[in-house]
Design goal:
Blueprint lengths: L13 H7 L2 H4 L3 H17 L5 H19 L12 H13 L12 H37 L4 E6 L2 E7 H26 L1 E2 L15 H8 L3 E2 L3 H6 L2 H27 L7 E2 L18 H24 L14 H24 L1 E2 L1 H7 L7 H10 L4 H18 L8 H7 L7 H4 L2 H6 L9 H16 L2
Parallel strand pairs: 3-4
Antiparallel strand pairs: 1-2, 5-6
Helix pairs in contact: 3-4, 3-6, 3-8, 4-5, 6-7, 6-12, 6-19, 7-10, 7-19, 10-11, 10-12, 11-12, 14-15
The chain binds arginine (ARG).
Family: Belongs to the lyase 1 family. Argininosuccinate lyase subfamily.
Keywords: Amino-acid biosynthesis, Arginine biosynthesis, Cytoplasm, Lyase
Main location: cytoplasm
Length: 458
Amino acid sequence: MKLWGGRFAKNTASLVDSFNASIEFDQKLYKHDIIGSIAHAKMLGKCNIITIEESQIIIDGLQSILEDIEKGFVTFQIEYEDIHMNIEKLLIDRIGDVGKKLHTARSRNDQVAVDIRLYLREEIEEICGLLKNLLTTLKDLGKIHGDTVMPGYTHLQRAQPVTLGYHMMAYFQMFKRDLARLHDCYERVNIMPLGAGALAGTTYATDRQFLAQQLGFTDVCQNSMDAVSDRDFAIEFISDASIMMMHLSRFCEELILWSSAEFHFIEMDDAYSTGSSIMPQKKNPDVAELIRGKTGRIYGNLMNILTIMKGLPLAYNKDMQEDKPPLFDTVENLKDCLVIFNEMLKTMTVQKDQMKKATKEGFMNATDVADYLVKKGLPFRSSHEIVGKMVLHCIQHGKAIDDLSLEEFTSFSPAFTEDILEIIKIESCIASKVSYGSTAKGSIETMIQQAEDFLSNI
Ligand code: ARG
């Protein structure tokens, strides 16, 4: 007999039983469901909706079910559809008719909403911890590589010299924003829908503030129809996860390029690389590639849940049961990616000489030469043209700007003097970036200090 079987004259088809059921995936919520139910039973007792003794029997029953699930003693059943009814059925079997009072003044609609919020709250806390680990790694790399010269790119063409420390601290900023987005999302997840009932509120004088307090929510959903219909908080989380994955994916793309023979800027640790089943020489950056690939799956999850919700009339609709697979999948994959990416980053070897060598080609000091002439009084557009001609000359003669003699410099502009030879050195180009937030050593030191202050305050 179904828990809702009263108005039915016939059993559901077994096809419908399995099609309708979510127990296969929502059993993940068992702990949150029980915690929510314990708080609900306590509130029912406190508000004299059931007796204190009944409330206590229910709470003890729920606690023993929780222990048994954790010990692996419980098998959930498809005929009880979802985690909520499976646990309620287990409770009734265990404590008898008193168990039938638990569902007073609530519906599965507010129950599932509170379960997901409890789950997501916990997961966001964990993900924030993982992000913090990654930020710490980036800050450490920023510190170690403040002097590691490398090419900076635009259009994947060598542009201006930077340091690897600076490049790492660019990612620090991205993941710091991701963390801020998650903190912000948490505020909205942490509002309690329980007590909303099916959609209209209930006829019992419940104490939802007490419930929120018991469950550690900062507030109660103000409109019960919204409380049971809303999945914005999950969509918001998956959006944040998508942005985070986009950052990881860009980073992975760079690491994949950098570990190719063409760049050879880094080498992944053997423990974070894989081989080829046919080509014995291969060492592949599979981990980075897989993170890049999983980004597609997280974007897919975002489209999935947005599309589920887009046409739903208020209030609850069964479509919403489909919110859980994309949410769970996002949480699990994001956590895996953050952990493994951090380890991969910590263990990679940086080929400083190769990075430095790459800055010798590509006329990366050309902008500095142009800036030099501006400081000698030329308008920027004119100096840009002069240096453009110098670069063309160098290309035609197979030279770098650094190979030009002072005589050659002055043949392009009389404004050049001896000091240009020092100014065009790659280290000088980096050191001369005096603007706030630049790649110069002092600027990176400021970033590291800001990062350390930030990390010690979160
Ligand atoms: N398993 C359902 C879900 O995940 C629980 C809520 C069911 N509510 C209902 N009115 N059928 O959405």
